[in-house]
Design a protein that fits this description.
Radius of gyration: 18 Å
Helix content: 55-70%
Strand content: under 5%
Number of helices: 11
Structural class: mainly alpha
Shape: globular
Length: about 260
């Protein structure tokens, strides 16, 4: 079997800097010679700095699970998906592709939700289904797993409040509108015609950063180091300008 790019999920790779040659629709900044004046690009750069600071909390050798289990390995994979999506979200906003960014943000949320469900609510039988080798039979069996709504209900009842508050807020204020971007519904069709509000884009980048931060906190937890967990958890205090500080209805994807 061949080698696939991106398969080394135990490694936390360096970020790839987003493309810096376009501006978001509706931004007043001029390209190239004054990108630092563009609020979207400035926030994307600040978000990159936030992730770099988080990565400095982890060893260069990557993630070593404190307890090796199928459950933890699957949760690790879901966290990596969440982090990968966050990089795509801010890159998409930076290259003037806000509708694509919104669709990926919806995927990012579900990756974090999946990781949370795997850690706090999934049954051994459900974990076994997701841990199988990819075959038509395994794919068919995985279709019987809980929906996003069912996973959220289980997670809200079992996971720590610091995690569930963020998931519940996203579900209430952002998920439904972002579903429209996944399915090319009324939201993206209207935004293509009218433009995408810069302030909304900035709110969504901050929401994405919050989800990313939760994924890294989960990775620190999986590694079993209380010192690393505390360091990653409180790091946001140095980046309040690019993070949602606490669950609230202000940063949402509603029109």
């Amino acid at each position: 079997m061949g080698t696939y790019r991106g398969a080394a999920q135990r490694t936390l790779p360096n970020r790839l800097d987003p493309v810096r040659d376009c501006t978001l629709t509706g931004s007043s900044s001029a390209p190239q010679d004054s990108l630092c004046d563009d609020p979207i690009l400035a926030l994307a750069d600040r978000s990159d700095e936030f992730e770099d600071a988080i990565l400095d909390c982890f060893p260069s050798t990557g993630v070593v699970l404190a307890i090796e289990s199928e459950q933890n390995q699957l949760a690790l994979s879901a966290c990596h998906l969440c982090i990968e999506h966050s990089r795509v979200v801010r890159t998409a906003f930076a290259i003037d592709a806000p509708s694509s960014a919104c669709g990926v943000l919806r995927l990012q949320y579900e990756a974090l939700l999946r990781a949370s469900w795997l850690l706090f609510a999934a049954t051994p039988a459900q974990i076994e289904k997701l841990g199988r080798e990819l075959t038509p039979e395994a794919e068919l069996a995985a279709k019987n797993l809980p929906t996003a709504g069912e996973m959220l209900s289980k997670v809200l009842a079992a996971a720590p409040a610091g995690l569930t508050a963020h998931l519940a807020e996203f579900n209430e204020y952002s998920r439904h509108a972002l579903n429209s971007y996944v399915h090319s519904g009324i939201h993206p069709l209207r935004r293509v015609r009218e433009g995408f509000p810069v302030e909304m884009a900035m709110n969504l980048i901050r929401i994405s950063n919050g989800l990313m931060h939760m994924a890294y906190r989960m990775l620190a937890n999986l590694m079993g180091s209380q010192r690393r967990m505390d360091k990653v958890t409180h790091l946001y205090k140095q980046f309040t300008d690019c993070c949602p500080m606490a669950p609230s209805g202000e940063a949402s994807a509603k029109s």
